[in-house]
Amino acid sequence: MALKLYNLRDVVVVYNGIPIAGFGANGALKVEFDEQTFTKTMGVDGEATRNATNNTGGKITLTLMNTSDTNDLLNLSLIIDELTGIGLGVLFIQDTGGRTLYTSAEAGIAGNPATTFGKETDSREWIIDCATLIAF
Predict the structure, then answer these.
(1) How far apart, in whole angstroms, are the C-alpha atoms of residue 57 and residue 129?
(2) How far is CA 91 from CA 20, 28, 31, 86, 105, in A?
(3) For strand 101-109 and strand 48-52, is the pairing parallel, antiparallel, or unpaired?
(4) Closest C-alpha among 26, 124, 115 to residue 71
């Protein structure tokens, strides 16, 4: 069995043409789906039914350092969306050193992240909502 290597630098994240960089020290990104693909309903007699949820949506949480230049670009993208309503873009995440790939053709920033100021630099969590999130 070969020893595998993981390196966050091998993970490419691009949203709406913006390459994402400057990830936070306590995390980088999180991928979540809105629902499971299938649910199960059990009848009183023990018969089970498998239900397709038909919900392929999800969200991506990007954790960036307060000092990351990417914050400015994401903020500008959000402002343009707020003013024009045309802020949806393509999201692409790929681990080039592995096999992981996520993509969404209709993704949009949910809103402004919370900001904390203190003794040391903190991070900002940007949430990107995806109408359809495809995973491989």
Answers:
(1) 8
(2) 10, 15, 12, 15, 7
(3) unpaired
(4) 124
